[in-house]
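In practice, a research group might receive sequence data for several interacting partners and want a quick structural hypothesis before committing to experiments. The following worked case mirrors that situation: the sequences arrive first, and a predicted assembly follows.
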Amino acid sequence: MDLTFSESELAFRDDLRAWFRAHAPAPEPQGDELAHFCWRRDYQRLLARDGWAAVHWPARYGGRGATLTESAIFFVELGRHGAPMMANVLGLLLAGPTIMSWGTDAQKERHLGPILTAEEIWCQGFSEPDAGSDLASLKTRARRERGHWVVTGQKVWTSGAQHSKWCMLLARTDPDAPRHKGLTYFLMDMEQDAVDVRPLRQITGSSEFNELFIDGAVISDEQVLGGVGNGWGVALTTLMNERAGLAFFLQVRLRQLLDRLLREAADRGLLADQAVAERLGELHVRAEVLRLTAYRGLTTVQKYGQPGPEGSLTKWMWSDANQRLTQLAADLLGPQALAAGGSWGYELLRARGNSIEGGTTEVLKNIVAERVLGLPKSR
Amino acid sequence: MDFDLTEEQREIKRVARELLAARSPLSRVREAAETGAYDQALWREIVGLGWGGIAVSQAWGGQGLGGIELVVVLEELGFACAAAPLLSTAAAAAAIDACGSDAQRERWLPGLVAGDLRAGVGPAALALDGHGADVAVVLDGEGAVLVAAPESEPLETIDPARRFAALARSSVAGGEPLGAGAADLIRMSIAAEVVGLCQRALEMTVAYVGERRQFGVPVGSFQAVAHRCAEMLLQTESARSAAYHAAWAAGAEPTRLGEASALAAAAAATAAREVPASAIQAHGGIGFTWEADVHWLYKRGEVDRALLGGAGAHHARLARAAAARLAGGSP
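A structural hypothesis for the assembly, expressed as tokens:
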């Protein structure tokens, strides 16, 4: 057991820190959604120019072939330096690795470069109004017509769709096949009239997510990924990638938010109150245990090639901790934390999504019970 | 970054698991609880294996291994819920070795390791194996005090599988301070036992709810039950992450042991209550009976939580330390 970084990991971190110091991010734009997107896109371009946008990608595709630990270091440092998450995070973490696993040479050649430089943004068209946690029940249909695929259906929760050139689209190509077998994974061009992007207004008032209405969108055979009828297997590659590096970024953001609350509580003299100190300390323990468990999970994957029991727990731990943290802020800071337009108020509302996005806590518990503990399938 | 046991540590853990499974099934724990005496044959075997001195330098008769080996053996002690004075002996010996003077080491360690001397640990009001102990390492606030032959009254607790004592205030007042590091090692050791007893509670529960059928199906297929089991895993793994981190700090980064141990204590104190309580609930009516054995884990968990001083004090200490660090400007 060695919970320190190796010489080469430290060198990687030092290079990265020097780079972040030399490229301090501009202040985060408030309120204006487009300005916020541009802030993230421009910063990704800067990262990409110097080879930092996708450290986990192989060098031949413009990455650095980073180890899992180095990749974790990247996300930790990104968070620590107040830099924005890359605008094309779904392309970098999901679409890119999925294309590397399943794509033809031509697909890799065509898509990977523009993902890295944020020239082409990607979104994920998996969830539907009636296919959320139960993804395999999705209904969006792709039919053969005159040598093309023609897609009709509706997707929801597509973050960043309004900025996206491409969509990782999961659609049903064979309605008669068993539900996991009749699916195909498409790379859909968003720039066509048949694709209508409508922003979904969230409880925060802002719109990170969209609904996608697809009415006769045309996709060529060249944009099928991993073969017709193989969509579920390809989608699993995407889903498996989903919770890897992000956990470290989220963990750091949680720590920063907790530190902010600790400072504000200390400034008000609230830590002298034992009950308040205990509640803050309980969150400190949650944040630290999350960090430690994330590193344990990383070691397990690195050494044994697959996640251990702890790997299924970090997203659940994070969402729970973040929700409790923002609620504690409301309790401790009172009306100031609840002021309209204030950042604590935003965090309080935004945190409600944490236990839903990327797998609801209820589904995560089912997964833990069935796949980790080996309990009979839930009812 | 390698947050995992080595092959050798896994082997130590495996040997401890197998030996305790063979020698100390829960029927023996019950026997010890009902007769009010430790399993002496088991204790002689444990002494023979040198577990009491696993983290003690070879110069004093120990095995010269570290905090991680100590933690994995105590984790297995907890898993077996074994009725033997290993936690008190191993934790006191580790604390004296790390924080005592040479005179104290020479006076106590060879005898503790050989099983000739008996040690008590814990707060004065609840000293595990404190009655008739030759030496006690008493938790006192954030520090610890070494007391030779403390005056004591035996104390019967809800956990009859172990012996406790209330130590006389006067003899604790005359003790020799060992410093905060000693208390940290003792809390780390208790936390390690908690990880094991939570793991046992979880495994017993998963096995039970997979077999027990109602409405024609295993009760573990009901989400209310399955989700409870998932929560038990989360609490257990949280306590394990924190305990292993403290074990690593004990050897590699002693300056970080104070906070690491408080973190381990806080996570363990939470899990020690929640996980065995959930085990009883998930076992239903049978879980509330003397025969079902899950209650030994709940009893040990509640008392270990008290030995740790509960979760709240550690939470508050950690929050204040974090706030002080922020005020000092370090990240």
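Before designing any experiment, note the following. Chain A has a mean pLDDT of 94. Chain A touches chain B through 54 residues (CB under 8 Å).
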